[in-house]
């Protein structure tokens, strides 16, 4: 090739005025992995980053709460009747807020409100996270088997999913609460306390909550099983469990992660509703749900105590929802928004 035909990097083919690059100044084009691209999109999404910050703070608070209770920094159980008036309402405004009790005290008992809110986050997140993980595990297994197998296996599992969806989960929780709690106690050997009540609530939420995951995963698997690496594994004689969990499952981590973040707020709200129905963890052990349910009795005489857990639950639920939406948009930018 003649010297006049040589095209330098940065020189326009049409003979534009861009000067050729000096030797050694050519810049290598750096490729970006899908994860890096997703992180770039995520960092540009300001609402999602704010929500992520709130979620991290909530998780850290939930982890630290039991340690702070053991150290005596938080005290969600001690009564302070001297801080209540003759009607067992906190003396002074803002639920009797003071330096020793920044968010006041609980009407009727005088227990420190901030300690109960903070400690309640731990139990509520533990129930919600465990139920979400169980739901995703059950739904992923059912969805992978149904989507890959097809035929009568897919038909049976899909109808079983529809059957589970038809059950009224709240009514089932209420109807089976006594029997289910006794069954949990027999299986685990635990007494009738907050741990057994939390396990029962978690298991029932997971049993009725896996169906949406199964449907999403089944739809993803119907596409993934047509790809070359899955067909190669089938031709090479790989076992079905290997195809399910070594070939297909690693390609589902993005939708499963999004599903977990979207299930968490749903289960936090569900735990609050179940506490109002006296099915979840019962006082004196605090959860966000039973603290809010207890505050309803004092909504008119002590509105500050009523609004604080409500605002806390709303903040956590909205943050998880926005985080889930942001992760979905970052990991699947071509999907419907």
Automatic annotation (TrEMBL):
The chain crosses the membrane at residues 49-69, 117-148, 160-183, 195-217, 248-268, 304-324. It is a multi-pass membrane protein. Pfam families: BPD_transp_1, OppC_N. Residues 121-324 form the ABC transmembrane type-1 domain. InterPro entries: BP-dependent_transpt_permease, MetI-like, MetI-like_sf, OppC_N. It is found in: Cell membrane. Residues 1-27 are annotated as: Disordered. Keywords: Cell membrane, Membrane, Transmembrane, Transmembrane helix, Transport. Belongs to the binding-protein-dependent transport system permease family. This is Peptide ABC transporter permease. It comes from Nocardioides luteus.
């Amino acid at each position: 090739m003649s010297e006049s035909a040589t095209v330098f990097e940065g020189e326009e083919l049409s003979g534009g005025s861009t000067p050729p690059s000096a030797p050694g100044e050519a810049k290598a084009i750096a490729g970006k992995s899908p994860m890096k691209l997703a992180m770039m999109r995520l960092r540009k999404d300001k609402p999602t980053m704010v929500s992520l910050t709130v979620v991290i703070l909530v998780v850290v608070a939930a982890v630290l709460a039991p340690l702070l209770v053991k150290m005596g920094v938080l005290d969600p159980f001690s009564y302070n009747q001297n801080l209540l008036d003759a009607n067992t309402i906190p003396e002074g405004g803002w639920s009797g807020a003071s330096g020793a009790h920044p968010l006041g005290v609980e009407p009727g008992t005088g227990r420190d409100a901030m300690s109960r809110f903070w400690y309640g986050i731990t139990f509520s997140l533990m129930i919600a996270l465990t139920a979400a993980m169980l739901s995703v595990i059950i739904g992923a297994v059912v969805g992978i088997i149904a989507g890959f197998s097809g035929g009568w296996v897919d038909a049976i599992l899909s109808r079983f999913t529809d059957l589970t969806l038809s059950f009224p989960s709240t009514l089932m929780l209420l109807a089976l609460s006594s029997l289910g709690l006794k069954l949990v106690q027999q299986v685990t050997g635990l007494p009738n306390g907050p741990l057994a009540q939390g396990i029962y609530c978690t298991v029932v939420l997971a049993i009725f909550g896996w169906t949406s995951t199964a449907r999403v995963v089944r739809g993803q698997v119907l596409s993934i099983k047509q790809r070359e690496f899955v067909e190669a594994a089938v031709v090479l004689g790989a076992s079905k469990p290997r195809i399910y969990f070594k070939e297909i499952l690693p390609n589902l981590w993005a939708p499963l992660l999004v599903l977990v973040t979207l299930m968490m707020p749903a289960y936090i709200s569900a735990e609050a509703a179940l506490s109002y129905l006296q099915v979840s963890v019962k006082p004196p052990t605090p959860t966000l749900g039973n603290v809010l349910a207890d505050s309803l009795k004092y909504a008119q005489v002590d509105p500050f105590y009523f609004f604080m857990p409500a605002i806390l639950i709303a903040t956590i639920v909205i943050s998880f929802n926005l985080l889930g939406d942001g992760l979905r948009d970052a990991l699947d930018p071509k999907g419907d928004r």
